[in-house]
Amino acid sequence: MPPASEYAAAQIRIHWAMMALITFQYLLSYSVLPGWHYLITTNDFFFTPGVIVHVVIGTLVLALVVWRMAMRLRHPVVTEIEGFDPWLEKLSHLVHLCAYAVMIAIPLTGLVAYFGDLIPMSVVHNVLALGLLGLIGVHASGALYHQFIRHDGLLMRMVKSESSGQ
Ligand code: HEM
Ligand code: HEM
Q: Which of 17, 20, 122, 131 has a beta carbon 3.0–4.6 Å from 113's, enabling a disulfide?
């Protein structure tokens, strides 16, 4: 398929839906802790509402990121911006790539820690969750730089699409 000049409407919807779900995960991440501490001290599962919500939403994020990556591969988008520093362009691609990798690794390490009884994985999970926060900070700052300093309309690529569906 030839590269498109914009994201499809479905890609835009998934981007913002995932942002909402990931924000929710951070805001309520503490709610997984009582059930998790019960599990590591007694070796028995204790599915508190907090555990269920964290696991279900986290697994949904995993499903959405896989779907989104498949869509990205089937629907390549030209993301170069005219007159933009090629190094910053490369940096933004790297941040996107790392964000995809980390959005897959966080739920996987969480699932392995919880159901596979691998406590060290929970440390990796927490470190990756911190790393994703950093990536989101750089990414969102970049988007705001385009919007308010360069005024190049990049943000609109993730807001509105002329094409519908995929
Ligand atoms: C997008 C997906 C996810 C995000 C952003 C996320 C984020 C987090 C964060 C920030 C914490 C630290 C909580 C704190 O110390 O206050 C945490 C803990 C934890 N999460 Fe997730 N999580 C995700 C998915 C999952 C999934 C799918 C599971 C599967 C069971 C899971 C299992 C756990 C466990 C067991 C802990 C406790 C680890 C510990 O304290 O050592 N997470 N998560
Ligand atoms: C949880 C938070 C977020 C995550 C994980 C995330 C992740 C991503 C990823 C992976 C891409 C690359 C899409 C692709 O090319 O396949 C992307 C694109 C984009 N994101 Fe985000 N994003 C988040 C929040 C935000 C926020 C808060 C903004 C605005 C302030 C934003 C604005 C954009 C824009 C404008 C693009 C398109 C960039 C381009 O066309 O080069 N994102 N996002």
A: 122
Closest CA to 33 of 61, 53, 18: 53
Helix count and strand count (H, E) for the chain: 5, 0
- Which ligand 1 atom sits closest to the C-alpha of 119? 41
- Nearest ligand 2 atom to the CA of 7 is 40
Q: 26 C-alpha to center of ligand 2: Å?
A: 17
Ligand closest to 26 (CA) is 1
Confidence of residue 165 (pLDDT cuts 50, 70, 90): very low
Please choose, from the candidates 56, 134, 161, 12, the residue with its C-alpha nearest in 3D space to the C-alpha of residue 142.
134
Tens-place pLDDT, residues 87-125: 999 999 999 999 999 999 999 999 999 999 889 999 999
E strand or H helix at 56:
helix 49-74
